[in-house]
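FIELD: query
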Amino acid sequence: MKNSPEIPAQTLDSSLRYLYDSIRYFECELMAIEFKYNGVVWRADTPEEAIALRAQLQKSTHFPVDEHEVMDERDRFWTPDKFMDVIDGIGDLQRRLLRIVHDHPRITGKELVVELGINSEVSLAGVISGLSKQLKPLDVALNQVLAIEVKWIGRVKTRRFILDDFFASAGAKQNWPDCAPDGR
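FIELD: result
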């Protein structure tokens, strides 16, 4: 329809829902899902078939990952208890590291060494290694807490540190790092 105005999405959703409910009320057969992707026709008529179809699609190397689902899963991972288990389960130096990175996003390794009051970036690597080891028994990977960006400019290597967005969000919900004077 070239010259017709666009139908608002909410109106279309309501109309389709009404149509679907009417078809189900009169017990008509309805093809729930059918589409063609990469030359393969995918079909599902029942909820069971839809679940099986989803499993097949997730295994398919040609089907794109649902980014929203991945993000929802990462968000659900950080429950208040899981967040506090991490904060309570790591050492003081590691907790200070996280607080400094929270307060100074994208802080460089050299700046972090000064803020932590340690000797060198080699010592910083030890602190980070300790954090990784302390997270392991909690079933948390380092990259679920801390991101480290490495850039080379010529022969100079610069590391920048930032908290994972989902970890930081879980912390904000717990009023961290302001919940205790020591950052716990």
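FIELD: remark
Helices lie at 9-25, 47-59, 67-77, 80-89, 92-103, 109-116, 121-135, 165-173.
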